[in-house]
Design the sequence.
């Protein structure tokens, strides 16, 4: 490898994935990397999703880097601002800021075969070259705008939950929220008390369990600061509790019914009106869509100024929403809590690999990678949080750290052997995905009787890992050279 000792590395994005990669590269003595960030600050999804009530539904002591425990978490489930602070803290502590080019969106990437380098085109048209590219763009970064007729003609205020308009005061407004997923159930209880009227448009009721959040008081925080081993034990306890839930998703054990009954009891206790309760009762298996955690969502629906609308939306008019029953609800503000384009086969930007191969074409029907990280025809290109690396049961930060370790091992292998390029074999990728598909076919995500963002329109799950996080860690601990073309 020409750049053997210090390969020039481009990392795209500064969310959990990009920052973890940069920190571990630095720790490994690989200093010649640049992070390209489209925005003016770090944080990825935790910068973009700043809607009222935004918080994590995985406990903070697990939803953080293993190498950077944070004894200062103030809640079991941290709010968005605290997670963003944590990411800024990591950026500063590990000296990453000088490596970051802010306001530098990567518009395209092209592999220059003669030079064995990637050419990245940035927002302003500038071209930069890198020997290795690591994408940390994530899959929950592109808001999904629903194709509802008339949406473009709406004359009131319209925005997506992931692009919250903080300058727009909701006090006294009549507001519509479309969607009842993880984002909606967090923001609805927060905005309901200040708006005049809230119409919440539900297409499919989610399964909701109590969140049971709690404050982590000064004594607990002092304990973790003084005795890091106690914090480590706490993290382990959370990790194994969540890992233990995997069978609920991958095998239809009767134990899943226990959780469904618990959720139905919670619904019954929270919603006395049988009519409203019926509207909120899911008709698919729990876990098929993401299981939501909330203590205040159902109570918010009991407020006199909140209406749950289950009639399908027919059109958005200039000043409201018309439902299939012919009723129009005038609104001032329309909030789309309609999620992200996660499963559909989209590459984060146009990527052209070996022989002019275009990733958009390869992924046109569905996104596939090897261990969610490498793609045949795309030498020296790595995806963090790539296809089938998200989870229904635990912390994606654990998966990110596994992938980062894998990428480091790929780089070390190239350095040791003086290899110029590393590219996964098509056969290895196909074998991997064939097996993945068989395993996914048996999970609740496939058999539970629902549509979800986990799957493409044709029903293929391109987002979730169907095994334990331990299995993923084991399989990404080191590169299997036989699965790769390594060229000098
Ligand atoms: P989501 O789970 O995909 O929910 C989107 C909602 O919009 C669904 O209720 C969906 O209904 C509805 N919807 C979409 N298109 C519609 C249309 N044309 N008409 C009517 N309704 C429509 O999106 P999200 O709530 O933003 O969450 C996405 C993911 O982000 C989560 O699953 C989670 O992984 C992550 N997230 C995490 C947290 C956290 O606490 N860590 C917080 C927020 C988000 P259907 O169900 O019928 O499709």
Sequence:
């Amino acid at each position: 490898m020409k750049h053997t000792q210090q390969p020039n590395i481009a990392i795209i994005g500064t969310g959990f994935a990009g920052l973890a990669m940069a920190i571990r590269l630095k720790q490994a003595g690989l200093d010649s990397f640049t992070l390209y960030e489209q925005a003016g600050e770090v944080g990825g999804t935790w910068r973009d999703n700043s809607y009222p009530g935004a918080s994590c539904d995985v406990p903070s002591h697990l939803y953080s880097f293993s190498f950077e425990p944070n004894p200062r978490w103030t809640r079991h489930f941290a709010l968005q601002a605290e997670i963003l602070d944590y990411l800024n803290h990591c950026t500063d502590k590990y000296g990453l800021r000088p490596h970051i080019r802010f306001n530098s969106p990567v518009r395209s990437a092209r592999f220059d075969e003669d030079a064995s380098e990637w050419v990245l085109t940035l927002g302003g048209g500038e071209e930069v070259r890198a020997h290795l590219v690591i994408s940390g763009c994530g899959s929950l970064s592109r808001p999904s705008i629903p194709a509802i007729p008339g949406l473009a003609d709406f004359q009131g205020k319209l925005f997506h939950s992931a692009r919250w308009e903080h300058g727009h005061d909701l006090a006294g407004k009549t507001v519509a929220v479309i969607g009842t997923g993880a984002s909606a159930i967090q923001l609805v209880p927060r905005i309901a008390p200040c708006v005049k009227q809230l119409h919440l448009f539900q297409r499919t009721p989610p399964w909701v369990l109590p969140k049971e959040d709690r404050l982590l008081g000064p004594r607990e925080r002092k304990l973790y600061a003084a005795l890091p081993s106690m914090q480590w034990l706490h993290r382990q306890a959370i990790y194994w509790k969540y890992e233990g839930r995997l069978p609920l998703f991958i095998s239809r054990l009767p134990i899943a019914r226990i959780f469904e009954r618990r959720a139905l009891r919670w619904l019954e206790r929270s919603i006395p009106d049988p009519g409203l309760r019926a509207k909120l009762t899911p008709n698919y298996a729990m876990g098929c869509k993401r299981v939501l955690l909330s203590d205040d969502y159902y109570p918010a629906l009991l407020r006199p100024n909140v209406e749950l609308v289950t009639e399908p939306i027919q059109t958005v008019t200039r000043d409201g929403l018309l439902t299939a029953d012919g009723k129009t609800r005038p609104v001032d503000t329309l909030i789309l809590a309609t999620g992200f384009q996660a499963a559909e086969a989209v590459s984060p930007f146009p990527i052209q690999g070996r022989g002019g191969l275009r990733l958009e074409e390869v992924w046109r029907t569905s996104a596939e990678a090897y261990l969610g990280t490498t793609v045949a025809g795309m030498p020296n290109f790595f995806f963090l949080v790539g296809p089938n690396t998200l989870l229904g049961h635990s912390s994606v930060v654990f998966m990110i750290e596994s992938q980062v370790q894998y990428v480091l091992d790929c780089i070390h292998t190239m350095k040791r052997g003086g290899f110029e390029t590393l590219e996964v074999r098509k056969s290895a990728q196909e074998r991997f995905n064939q097996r993945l598909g068989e395993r996914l076919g048996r999970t609740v995500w496939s058999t539970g009787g629902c549509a979800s963002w986990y799957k493409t329109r044709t029903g293929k799950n391109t987002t979730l890992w169907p095994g334990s996080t331990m299995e993923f860690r084991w399989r990404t601990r080191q590169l299997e050279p036989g699965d790769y073309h390594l060229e000098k």
Remarks:
- DSSP finds 15 helices and 21 strands in the chain.
- The radius of gyration is 23 Å.
- The chain has two domains: 9-142+341-487, 151-212+247-336.
- Residues 55-57, 140, 146, 148, 178-184, 186, 201, 203-204, 290, 313, 337-340, 451, 453 surround NAP (CB under 6 Å).
